[in-house]
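lol ok so funny story. i was supposed to be doing the assay writeup but got distracted and ended up predicting the structure for this chain instead. priorities right. anyway since i did it might as well share w the group, maybe its usefull for someone
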Amino acid sequence: MSHRDRLARTLLDESWAYGYTLTIWGAGAFLIAEYGVPSHLDVVGYVGGSLLGFAALTWYSFGGLLVGVERDSRDVRSPVEMVHLFATFCNLVGALLTIQVAHALGVSERATFVAVGVGATVGYSLLLLVEEVVGERYRPGDAARDGGE
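and the output, tada:
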């Protein structure tokens, strides 16, 4: 395997969580920029909110939290699909708007941390669905879409 092939495989493997990582770190940075260094409870609220959002999506998607799951291999037809630019950018804008609205409405800092944590996870996952649907419909050279096969 060439060095380029190895690098491509590494990038593909790392890209699974890359956009989500940027979303979580970026939303957390927005919270710090708005409120300063968070307390321990604020961090627990933010992470707990993210976990709550993930648990809710898992329950909805799989029909429960303790069910068997099979993971299909990932079908990536272009490098652009790996990074999830749309989901990451839109979710960061959503996190910033949530913080600004919560601040303007006088929502407590702790509640804002929880809300941004939930929103980061749920928003990112739902925006990935949008990316996938649009990608499937507008993928150039797709034989099924173009009437081939």
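The mean pLDDT is 83. The chain has one domain: 19-63+77-137.
back to the writeup now i swear
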